[in-house]
Structures are given as structure tokens and as C-alpha cells.
Amino acid sequence: MNIHTGHRGTYGAPRVHAEPRHRGRKVNRKRVTRLMRIHHIVGRHLHRTRRTTIADRTAPARPGPG
């Protein structure tokens, strides 16, 4: 899986599958997925976290339990 490591571990099965196809080699997507699963190779999940709540610092504190 030189494609995966060559892209610093960010490529998952769809992108790893697309690279050889772009170069003219026939590769089945399910085979790539299966081989990556067997060898415990996972692409990185780069999701941004969104801040949905902004605390009001002037609001009174909530009373604690009993």
C-alpha cells in the first residue's frame, strides 16, 4: 500500500483505488477495500469540529444536584 503511505496516510480505499486506475491498471475497488481491512490500513478522517454553543459568561450558574 505505497499509495496510502505516500500520501501520509490520508487516502482511504476510494482514493487508493483511483490512483492505479488513473495510471491505467485494472484494480477492483472491493479488493482494495478488503486488502486494506486485512492489513488494518485506514484513511485519516479530517473533519472540522464546529462550535455550536457559545457560553454566556454573564448568566448565573446553574444550581447543582441536591
Give a brief description:
Helices cover 38% and strands 0% of the residues.
Please outline the helices and strands:
Elements: H1 2-6, H2 13-22, H3 29-38
Organism: Streptomyces clavuligerus
Keywords: Plasmid
Domain HTH-like: 2-45
Q: Which labels suit this protein?
A:
single chain; 66 residues; mainly alpha
| Share in helix | 25-40%
Report Rg. Answer: 22 Å
- Residue-averaged pLDDT, rounded? 77
Main sheet record? none
H/E topology pattern: HHH
Strand content: under 5%
Terminal residue distance: 57 Å
Please characterize this protein's 3D structure:
With 66 residues, this protein is mainly α. The chain has a domain at 2-38. Helices cover 38% and strands 0% of the residues. Helix 2 packs across helix 3 (29-38). The longest helix is centred in the N-terminal third of the chain and has 10 residues, at 13-22.
